[in-house]
Prior knowledge:
Distance between the termini: 26 Å
Shape: globular
Helix content: 25-40%
Order of helices and strands: HEHEHEHHEEEEEHHEHEEEE
Radius of gyration: 18 Å
Number of strands: 13
Number of helices: 8
Largest sheet: 8 strands, mixed
Oligomer: single chain
Structural class: alpha/beta
Amino acid sequence: KRGSRTIGLLTLLISRSLRYFGSVFTMFPVSVFVGVMASVAVSAESPPVNVGVLAQHNPSAWSKQSICSSSNKNFVQCNLNVFTSAILGAGSSGVQLLVLPEGYGLSGTPTKTGFYEMLVASVGTTPCDTFSSSEFPQQVSLSCAARNGSIAVAANLFTSDGNGTRHITEIVFGNKGEVLAVYHKHHLFLTEEKLFEAGPFNPTTFSFAGRVWGILICYEGFYPEISGDWSQMDALKKANASSFVWSVGDSALTLDAMAETIAKKYSMSIAGTEDEEVDNTSMALLDATGKAVSTTDITVPAVEGYTAKPFVRHGLL
Length: 317
């Protein structure tokens, strides 16, 4: 089993590299998929939480007639419409926390000329009330959707500090649209290092529904298995996290297996997803023993011009 997982992780390295360089080397055309996965672990004292993940979202699945490819910002807005639809649908179905994929799910493959929204959200603020949706469409729309759907949302964006520095940033919104956590990805994948700056080593948690949750972003969930360095997850555990949320971009079909490893190692439940229109390997909702929990799927309401068929899978963690 360990050998097959090692092969899967090597496949991840190749897959992520090909996707990044696909736009440069046409001999390797690579479709862009983004996934969000989240890990969640439940303590014996905390009540179960209804957690959902957005599954099988394809950020490039837009009809030729749509305006989505007319500009980088329009592309982001189109995928933001899908996310908003998913958030509101999940909230109306009783989901308490929804985990969205890594920033690729909104922006596609990042480029130097892509849309990088200036980060204005900070813990305690409510972007829906404070900022302009035309200037900061992602932070405002996600905050408003969380409040309108009465649901917490773990979202991931490609952000800028306004001075040319870019980050891959997890922003967690509470069910009133308020910001619960802001975290910059520390362990970047090698193809991300040319465009993004690694955040500081700052293992970050947030409190919601009577529980402390630890944040992981994509490669940070795979990095320990490759490097042997588990310090980030160790620190989250020491910070009293009993659950992980994990937003993933592309796992090369290893997400579910790695989620099981993490859940068993730390005795924590985990919720995660990525943007892959494939089988159940692209998502995970596991209890603290690494077993899949009983789940229900919610169809994401249709968005004009969008041809993929994503859904929200949710269950009690």
